[in-house]
Structures are given as C-alpha cells and as structure tokens.
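Q: Structure tokens for this one, please.
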Amino acid sequence: MTRHHPDSLSLMEYSAGNLSEPHALCIRLHLDQCPHCRSRVDTLNSLGAVMMEHQPKVTLSDNSFDQLMARIDGGEGGPAPVMPEPRVSPLQKLLGNDINDLPWKRQLADVSVLDITDRFPGQNERVVLQKLVAGGKAPAHTHRGNETTLVLQGAFADQNGVFNQWDFVVLNEQDEHRPVAVGCDDCITLSVLSAPLKLTGRFTRLLNPFLR
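A: Here is the predicted structure, written as tokens:
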C-alpha cells in the first residue's frame, strides 16, 4: 500500500494538464496503483468539467445530430469495429522491456543508472532510472534543484522513513539523505531532476564535477 503521495497542488496541475511530460508520467504511474489519489483526481476532473460548462457554448446547425448519426450508421462501406487493445503500462510502452532487463550502467558500487532523458524531447529536466541493489546504500547527497521520484520496484529507507513500491517523493536543496535499499529486491526508481544532485560524503564529494 502506498503511503507517500503527490501533494494537492501537483494533483491539481496534473488534472489541468499543466505538468511536463516526465512529471505527468510519475503521477500517472502512481495513480494507476493508488485509489486514494485517483479519487482525488476524479474529483478535480469533475470540478473542471463543471467550470467548463460555464464557458460559451458552440452553436451547431439544426441537422448536426442527423449528420453525426448518418456517419455512425455509414452502412457496409463504413470502417470495421475496432477491438480495444490490451492495456499496456505507460512505462512499459516507453521502455519496451522489463525494467530489470534494461542496459543499466554502473555508476557507483551499489548504484546503476539509465538516463532516458532523450525519450522526452523538448524537456528541460533530466529523467533517469536508478537501481540500488538489495541491501545496498546510495552515497549521501543533497540536491541542487528539485527531484521528483517514484519507486517502481522494491523499497528504500532514509531518515524520512520507508518508501515502498509506487510511493511518491519530492526533494529539494534543503534535503540531504542516504537511501538504503530494504527488502530482498533491488530498489528501482524513476526520477525527474531539475539540476544534478550533489554528493556530500567525505570521499564521494570528489566525484561532483563528473555528475550531470
């Protein structure tokens, strides 16, 4: 069960279609698994629909309905019914493979990454998948900007608590942490970063010039 959710403002921006594609993907994946947030977004969508009802109405011609029905009942020459396609996760559609079978790149002892920023052309943020081996520790770090993270597999813990699969996390310059993968599975996360993170450990901080 998810315990960490997007805040109300993020859900409002998602409902209004104002989020960047990577941020919207994080919330969409969370909503697929979180009835609580899904219900909140449904309410926001309903409120938006009510507001739209007060917008100026488009005037249709008297025979518009008859023309529409004629197109629907287009006879033998009309297109064949389209069968609904099996539902595919937006993440699976984006990656094409199981997340454990991706071409991961080892970054540090317990950490592997896969940068997928190029799959979101025109976006300013960096979008990256990160894998922390079961029982492994990420280096202590803070952030030079905002980082939005969704847990896709496994779980991690830091001083703020335990974050399980589909939990939603937002961090900024004021947050410093050292995630540890808990449980038997590798912890895999999807992160959207407005700026590179900043390593703060005694030795790892020497790597900061090499981080994007």
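A few notes: Helices lie at 8-16, 21-33, 35-53, 64-72, 90-95. The domain at 90-210 is CATH 2.60.120.10 (Jelly Rolls).
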